[in-house]
Design a protein that fits this description.
Length: 75
């Protein structure tokens, strides 16, 4: 699976944070484990072109790790 393409597609929308979060939720529902997604997002973060993209990635990582409000967690 080409995670990088999925991530870029999400970041190129009008609402990158929401779109990226939805991509990760969908991947979790498909059975991709958290550790793999955290690793992929961490690697992808280095490719962010600006602060908005980096913040979107960090926000989703926080939701996977649990460093967020309970209602924002991605299990």
């Amino acid at each position: 699976m080409n995670f990088e393409k999925l991530f870029w597609d999400a970041l190129e929308t009008e609402t990158p944070s929401i779109a990226l979060r939805q991509v990760i939720i969908t991947l979790r529902e498909e059975g991709i484990d958290k550790d793999s997604l955290i690793w992929e997002l961490t690697e992808f973060r280095e490719k962010a072109r600006n602060e908005i993209e980096e913040e979107a990635v960090l926000g989703v990582i926080d939701s996977l790790v649990g460093w967020c409000s309970p209602h924002l967690r991605i299990d």
